[in-house]
């Protein structure tokens, strides 16, 4: 596996100031596949200085030229898609077909969308006797997780660059190799030195130093609600902008008129994708009492098809594997009924968890409230639509969700009642231009499309 024992700062690969390293492990077999530098506060400082020095030039670069660089970056991602997929499979464990389609494919779509938006967005508008200028926020500090390791990087870097911001990225320690590959793509795309900088390292060290740095104007974080809360507090104290994409516990609401087999099949696939490590996963399935038993049977049968090591990969590391198995034990202890899977590891080697379905889950149970981040589905029963809405809205989260009904208008009417940032109607497909982000404790701000671009802009009004 290709690796750099250096960090991409100010347009070149530089060794870390401290000597620490991080081992990158393949969770499918436990083998160490690479080591990367563990950046320190001094490395973060060097990267932030480079980004600040590059800011005036990049902010003044015409949007059409920024668009051309983003198009070149997209072309790099296309040219290296197989390498990207293989890298994500090695460091995250995702099956190769999924890595190709999603881990390599989604960043290409998102990067392409910002190449287009940079060239067409109205960075100036007239409002009465004013001209409003939409100017870059400044230097961005981006902290990303491991679950969609390149998508989450591109969902921050592409809009930041489109807006005219410069950026320092601290990727997750579990998945730094695809971030290094991305830095090579940025370099090959002719993006000027200092505009994008990469510091690999540990969250509480490099991540914290980045969030605290007074040379950063906006911190954009994706990850756990626990860390997001800390980063929000730091940003608040420093009066700097912050964007948070946090956890979820999304509801898949199947109304009585829905095509039950389709709704359950798509719902189980949604939870099992990426081994359940998806913040927007529909981890609670809500089914009317009259169709509940049938739905549970269908869900158990669908989950059984996800054979560990074949159709479903391992979790990212042994810590996550232990955490998810702990949640399955907790579900059993609280009285939920296991209908597929269970806490035992399915394979002797690798961080695998059995695809698990719980029936008879009640809304106050831990497995109905907390983000598990593994292949675990909770099936809950509701009495009527009011009850379904109450249960669906009854968590601290509000990131995504789904509604299924025989008639689209009926599904839309129910979707309007949901306190959540996205709802897929009767299996509607992912839209890389639609705003993505959370209500309630799922976050602050939106990513993707023009709403995501606006996060990296601030306004100045000129009156005439
Ligand atoms: P995490 O700790 O929130 O990691 C996200 C990013 O924040 C990583 O780059 C991490 O670095 C960094 N970080 C950690 N502590 C930090 C700090 N004090 N200051 C600044 N940055 C810091 O998430 P995790 O531990 O990897 O996963 C734990 C749980 O979070 C999961 O089980 C899941 O429930 C949730 N999660 C949610 C999402 C999502 O997309 N919403 C993504 C991942 C995880 P390191 O990589 O070095 O830790
Ligand atoms: Mg962590």
From TrEMBL:
Active site (catalytic residues): 245
Pfam families: Aldedh
SUPFAM superfamilies xrefs: ALDH-like
InterPro entries linked to this entry: Ald_DH/histidinol_DH, Ald_DH_C, Ald_DH_CS_GLU, Ald_DH_N, Aldehyde_DH_dom
Signal peptide positions on this chain: none
Keywords recorded for this protein, A-Z: Oxidoreductase
Domain Aldehyde dehydrogenase: 13-461
Gene3D superfamilies reported in the protein's UniProt record: Aldehyde Dehydrogenase, Chain A, domain 1, Aldehyde Dehydrogenase, Chain A, domain 2
PANTHER family per record: ALDEHYDE DEHYDROGENASE, ALDEHYDE DEHYDROGENASE-RELATED
Family note: Belongs to the aldehyde dehydrogenase family.
Entry protein name: Aldehyde dehydrogenase
